[in-house]
Amino acid sequence: MAEVIQRKKRDFHHVSRGANAVLHTIAAIFSFLCVFPFLFVVIISLTDEKTLATDGYRLIPAKWSFEAYKFVFQSGDTLLRSYGVTILVTVVGTLVSLILISLYAYAISRKSFRYRRFFSVFAILTMLFNGGMIPTYMVVSQLLGLKDTLWALILPLAMNAFYIMILRTFYSTSVPEAIIESGRIDGAGDFYIFLRIVLPLSLPGLATIGLFSTLGYWNDWFNALLYIDNPNLVPLQSMLMRIESSIQFIQQNSANSSLSMAALQSIPQDTSRMAMVVLATLPIIFAYPFFQRYFVQGLTVGAVKE
């Protein structure tokens, strides 16, 4: 009887070669559909502007050109400085965000914490109600005095209630209470237990939150628009928006000025926009493989409830 049951289990989990080939084909098509838009953007960014205007968008353009990237890189040190600011803000911001979110989520995940419910409700309320743009601006720029500093790009995004809830659920479901109790019996303190026991078991959840935070900091441009006037502190996304605004300004005023018309003809308009997308996306693409090991496991955290 046991052999029959084992045989049925093997038959249930066994996938035939034909079905396996079909599943792999579907996965390959889906992967191609995910990657193709970005590859097409890269192709457009490397297309000659005049060829793009006459032939339209093509997978294999009649003429290749690097003029779009030359135009973007004409800013020289400004572009490199913006890259440096964005990388610094992203790295420091992600670390600060992980520290604050992981500590907050761990505290409200422990049933022994007396104010667990209060701080959970407090975090959830911030997801439902917002103080508004003007009070936030007054707090950041006047009360905290962070205007024209890198902290104005870091602190407003450091805490996220949604990430706290995800990590709290991960702690509750993936970190057994018995392990924590055994650490306390051995005389370990709360911070020692958190650093030596909880964090090593929480790498999938931390990697997921880290990736979300990294994307948030890297793509942020609105805080720079509000709080940054110093050109040396402008991040990459904000600087690319300023380049785009300059192109739009020349386009809108080209009919009133012969100088603007001459400048407009020398600017790779559509291809430069695609080049900006490529420059803003490539670093994140290269960073993703470092998170991929834990990302798939961490994605399922939100589907598990207490």
From TrEMBL:
Per the record, membrane topology reads: Multi-pass membrane protein
Q: Name one GO cellular component term.
A: plasma membrane
Do you know which InterPro entries this protein is assigned to?
MetI-like (IPR000515), MetI-like_sf (IPR035906)
Q: Name one GO biological process term.
A: transmembrane transport
Q: Domain ABC transmembrane type-1 spans what residues? A: 83-288
**Which is an annotated Pfam family here?**
BPD_transp_1
Q: Which domain of life is it from?
A: Bacteria
Give the transmembrane region(s): 21-46, 83-106, 118-138, 150-171, 191-218, 274-291
- What does the UniProt keyword field contain? Cell membrane, Membrane, Transmembrane, Transmembrane helix, Transport
Localization annotation? Cell membrane
What's the family?
Belongs to the binding-protein-dependent transport system permease family.
Tell me the protein's name: Sugar ABC transporter permease
Give the organism, scientific name.
Paenibacillus rhizosphaerae
The organism's lineage? Answer: Bacteria, Bacillati, Bacillota, Bacilli, Bacillales
